[in-house]
Structure prediction request, 824 residues.
Amino acid sequence: MPDNIIIEVKSLSKRYSAGLFQKKKEALKCVSLQVLSGEVFGIVGSNGAGKSTLIKSLTGLLKPCFGTVFINGISPVDAASRKMIGFLPENPCLYQNLTITDHFRFISRVNGLDSALTAERVKVLLNQVRLSEAARTPLRKFSKGMIQRAALACALFADPEILILDEPMSGLDPLGRQLVVDLIYEYHRQGKTILFCSHILTDVERMCDRIGIMDEGEMKSVINAGELSNMIEHTGKTGQGATPLESYFLNLVGAQ
Amino acid sequence: MRNSIAIAIFTLREGLKQRIIIGLSLAALIMLTSGVMISGFFMRDISKIVVDLALSVASAGGLMVPFFVGINMLAGDIEKRTIFTIMAQPVSRWHYVIGKYIGLSILTLIVILFLASLGLASIWVGKLMYGPVFFKKFSMKSYLVAVFFNYWGTNVLLSLVVMWSSITTSSFLSFLLTLASYLIGNTLDDIVSFVNTNAPNNPMEETIQTAVIYLQYAVPNLSAFDLKLPVAHGIATSVEEAAVLVSYGAACITFILMISILTFNRRNIA
Amino acid sequence: MKRCLLPCIIGLFALILSVLTTESVHYIRERHSHEVLTRISDLPASLLKASVLEFHGVSADLLLLKTFTWVGMKIGVGADLTREEWKQLAGIIDRITDLDRRFWDPYLFAEMMLTWQGGMVEEANRLLIKASEANPDDYRPLYFLGFNEFYFRKDAARAAPFLRQAALKPGAPGFLKGLAARFSLYGRQTLAGIIFLKGLIKQTTDEKTKKYLQKRLETLEIINMLENAVTSYKEKFGHSPKTIHDLVTDEIIQYVPKDPYGGEFILLKNGSVYTTSGLINHDRSRNTKERPGNLSSK
Prediction:
């Protein structure tokens, strides 16, 4: 077992109901996962496969029913675990009446950054997500793409070791997508760990070192991106015009 | 604690930018102006009318914070999932609960102080219009004491908002529960006295009577913090009374916040 | 089609405007608001208190304001209150003072209306006792209690203790001290009424009420003048005048002034003067049989 495991999930199970009187749903069934330091790990799966539930368990938003999660050896119950995490939720919602700078100021305060560093980070990040001009605009005037970029900037602000991104590309135009991809590469180059989930397989395929495939709350398979083409050849089945990951995914999930 | 304060500042900033605050000040201004005019219709107790209205506007305005801003920023925070912005940071659940409470409490203080000073201005205008003879009974000190206890009572209500928002999943439910607590907390004294009168036409059953009598210990008595009437009549609050009220409020707030933290700790935020 | 649009909109607008400005809504609202107001007295005090939450003071203020409008409107259109309505008024004042026991205005209003116009001295006294319990340091409730006993009940012996107690309260005006003695010394209600009304006018800021009281004071002053003239007459001729006009023919006074209320002054056998108007505007003294406001001393 490699000793540079940064995220460790052991037989994680989660059942919860959407409403008070609704039937409980098994969102995660005994999921185990190890993410290594410095890799880009992608989780793919159809809608309702349990990707978001897994990610929310990693950030401590959901309490697991069974199993354990460790972020660099710390349980998500402990707030310190989130010192290492930058989290971009799915369809991020920021405070509508505040500006992006207000959000930065808050994050810098809870992370204990000093003012000089904060000022520098604000400048750099606004530049990176191309929101310098909108620094003083309340977020209710932002477009969906701008919100997504602003939320990404919030996730990156404290310069975390691990980036957890839930559908980072959704709602972005091609330019915005490229921006996110560039940022992920940039952080990868700096040796940070990136865990992200998406149901857009091409995005995952072009960026990830390893890919986890989830379906109906189970982790069906974890593969190295490099081995994909070999595996496809073994099974022999391909969809028309499909990329290797798509073919593999369809075989694994669509078969049932 | 540093995290709580950061959350409090963040909450306060968000609260101050809500447009409801501006509407509130406008409404208060209109009410106080008309109040000064109306008080001229009365014969003797002009100062009582003006002070009544000034304090009522301050407490009604103060109530807007828990009921509208508070629900919106607690239950709404979870409902709209803006809470992820805060919870994704290295903060604990209790930091969140305490921070939100403190932020809203400071917001309430600002609103009440603002409205109370508008009220003072209306008293001053009333003095100019009707002559200081009618305002002999008015005492600045007891006015401020009443404003403080108004704030303190609103704080208890605010802690109830925090509790209901940490238990329920929808802001509407949280609003209803808070409203119920407010109504019960304010009417309990009178209902108990109605139950105790044993009037011949009292239609209540005995079981209901006992239920009401026990209920008064289970629900915070919000009407205790209402000192508007005595102040309007120029009656000062004694130090003992004030001490009892302060500690009663503090005990309520601490207890309710503890329950909130306990439930919120176990809760899934999805 | 487009040409029609503008006239159509203007027409619609005019129609809306004409509906909005009709008075009927106002009447409906008025009737209902008074119905609600007069039923308030049926509600137990504790339930009324509960229903206004923490806004007892303001609710009392607004209810009293509504009561003013109700009574003012009734009197303004010349319709006196019926027996039933007087009872309701007493009930409303009772509820208002349940909400705010120390609120002096409703008590004062009750004292002004219930006694002089409504003939409900009993009710007024009950309210005044409530006021003196709520404000133990206030001389006014006791003063009015004393006055009611003396002026309406004509019982100087029961009035005296109230007035004595009133005189002991902080802030009581100096004249109260000798008042009990003076009241019984004069043995005439007219002077007591004048003193009382003068005090009341001094306390009133509302111009309408002031005028209302001033008219009453004016009449009482005329009666007082006439009664003094009768005394002079007796001193001069050794016997009482037969009618009020003897005062003019025998040159005690130059003329009999007109009653501001439109009545006629009549001399009673005991030497006191009475007016047929009973100090109420003449055209509407129908509803109540017994008028404590008239000065028909026995």
Q: What stands out?
A: Residues 156 and 184 of chain C are 6 Å apart (CA to CA). The longest strand of chain C covers residues 265-267. The radius of gyration of chain C is 24 Å.
